[in-house]
Design brief:
7-stranded mixed sheet; binds hexanoyl-coenzyme A; alpha/beta; 8-stranded mixed sheet; 2-enoyl-CoA Hydratase, Chain A, domain 1; 20 helices; 3 domains; elongated; single chain
């Protein structure tokens, strides 16, 4: 029997050691917290047998103060590439069992390496994050490592999709990199995101709060707007990654893949003709409208719990990916406030980066009036949305279902912001102001001097409504391309997007624009 080459035996030994992460005891602790190991996550995310690790031998370097007692292969992060639904992705998965998954100089080199390879090959990049932030023992070297990652997150933004899944306590720098990415997924009660944790907050401000109340999934899904999707378990979160990616191309020069629709493109939903109540103050549910128009079961709503007066999400229509933007008239009458503007803006820009056409559903009485909104910079925030729609070159189709008043008309993918096709339902009301507000301004004196101001105001408001509370004036002036029956919406939108498939919109050369932030 020939003896195995000792050098090969040595390699096998090191490889086995590398698989042990931070050791048995720390893995036991990780499991006790209800968390998977970094390797289990990679295996679960990617198609079986497709993962190829790179740089598994890297260890931390230059421990000047001798604070880092142990050297671990991989230095707290697993990096490499594999396949999701037949497409290559690059990824990293932080190993909390090694120095709490914290970022060292060498860990940052590993992460940057896979980021560079993802862009060089034009494929998505996925971060599985479980980290205590910058590794304290490495001082400025770990912070510089974060800067290297953030720079790449920014420079590669809009080149390849970047997705972050938060799988543990993601502190400091571990929270900033996801904030620069296209999608942030959190896990209920298991993941936290904060720049400074409860201990630091207590020391600095005296405020007492636990991790969940400070930066849990509930907070970032409904209050801060930092996260986009939530999952009950790690498994569900990884499924969401695959699902979200199915709507996106691998990079900014490809188109999203076509999925043969099981839903008839010519389907007309008769119930849509009855959806908008005759009373303009009565709400209806725009989510239902969207679901009846797009391919059945294809709507993936994003940020469903934050700024609920606005709706954003990915869907398929006629088998093609689209970005859906709209108002929910059942929440705050669909008014646009600061958070709604921010939510829609970021999404419009993401769709434009990745060649995903935009379909906008409009029912909004306008921007939210109020001191808090004005002092909070609603002008600046609303301007972002104007900017985003104006610069977006993807096919843009707009459907006005009911109210499109004032700023809300203009900002919501209006025709002269560059929208390709604008439809209105017969229930559309397109005007600068609502009837009462308008006559109070236009006919103030006439109403005051009238013998019966109430009757006079009503008469004038009725006349105003007759002229403006319908889509016909807008259509007669060309501001609306066509007025359609609600049930025709699906085939009409599919036809218009199909005619726009080869849209080409060259832009004047510039370094980059200066979006208001
Ligand atoms: C080095 C760290 C560490 C850190 C945790 N560990 N955070 N090591 N640097 N930042 C180590 C612990 O010593 C421990 O090592 C292991 O990770 C697990 O940590 P535990 O505290 O036992 O776990 P847990 O109770 O679950 O608490 C996790 C935690 C907490 C919430 C993350 O450890 C924590 O608050 N850490 C500090 C977070 C932080 O402030 N980071 C710096 C942010 S500033 P052993 O050997 O026992 O397994 C930053 C600068 C970048 O990131 C700024 C860019 C903008």
């Amino acid at each position: 029997m020939t003896q195995e080459d000792p050098r090969i035996l040595e390699l096998r030994k090191i490889r086995t050691k590398a698989l042990e992460g931070g050791g048995e005891e720390r893995i036991r602790k990780q499991k006790a917290r209800g968390k998977m190991t970094a390797r289990e996550r990679v295996t679960l995310l990617l198609a079986a047998g497709t993962f190829n690790e790179i740089e598994p031998f890297i260890t931390h370097q230059g421990d000047e103060m001798n604070l880092l007692q142990d050297k671990f292969y991989g230095d707290g992060v697993i990096t490499g590439y594999g396949q999701i639904s037949g497409r290559t992705v690059y990824l990293y998965s932080q190993d909390f069992t090694i120095y709490g998954g914290t970022l060292s100089e060498m860990q940052s080199h590993k992460i940057c390496r896979v980021m560079d390879l993802a862009v060089r090959n034009g494929v998505p990049f996925i971060s599985l994050i479980d980290s205590g932030g910058a590794r304290i023992q490495e001082g400025v070297r770990s912070m510089g490592g974060y800067a290297e990652i953030f720079r790449r997150n920014a420079q590669y933004s809009g080149v390849v999709p970047q997705l972050a899944v938060m799988l543990g306590p993601c502190a400091g720098g571990a929270a900033y990199s996801p904030a620069l990415q296209d999608l942030v997924i959190m896990i209920d009660k298991k993941s936290f995101m904060f720049l400074t944790g409860p201990e630091v907050i207590k020391a600095v401000t005296g405020e007492v709060i636990d991790s969940e109340s400070l930066g849990g999934a509930d907070v970032h899904m409904s209050i801060s707007g930092v996260a986009h999707l939530r999952a009950g378990t790690e498994k569900e979160a990884l499924e969401l990654v695959r699902h979200f990616l199915s709507y996106l191309p691998s990079n900014n020069v490809e188109n999203p893949s076509f999925v043969q629709p099981r839903d008839d493109p010519a389907r007309m939903d008769e119930s849509l003709n009855r959806v908008v109540p005759l009373d303009p103050t009565e709400p209806y549910i725009m989510h239902h409208v969207i679901e009846k128009i797009v391919d059945q079961d294809s709507f993936l709503e994003i940020q469903p719990d934050w700024a609920r007066n606005a709706i954003i999400g990915l869907a398929r229509i006629g088998g093609h990916s689209v970005g859906i933007v709209g108002q929910e008239p059942a929440i705050m009458a669909g008014v646009i406030d600061i958070d709604a503007a921010d939510k829609m803006t970021r999404f419009v820009r993401m769709c434009d980066c990745f060649n995903i056409p935009l379909v906008t559903f409009v029912d909004s009485p306008g921007f939210l009036p109020g001191i808090a909104q004005e002092h909070g910079g609603i002008i600046r925030h609303g301007a972002k949305l104007l900017y985003a729609y104006s610069e977006a070159t993807v096919p843009k189709v707009c459907l006005i279902t009911r109210k499109a008043y004032g700023g809300a008309y203009v900002v919501m993918s209006s025709k002269y912001l560059g929208t390709d096709v604008t439809y209105a339902w017969p229930s559309a009301e397109i005007a600068v102001l609502g009837a009462e507000g308008a006559v109070n301004i236009l006919y103030k004196k006439q109403i005051e001097m009238s013998k019966n101001p109430t009757a006079e105001r009503k008469k004038l408001a009725d006349e105003y409504r007759e002229k403006f509370n319908n889509p016909y004036y807008a259509a007669s002036t060309g501001y609306v391309d066509d007025i359609i029956e609600p049930r025709e919406s699906r085939p009409k939108i599919i036809a218009s997007l199909s005619a726009l498939r080869d849209k080409y919109t060259p832009a004047p050369p510039r370094k980059h624009g200066n979006i208001p932030v």
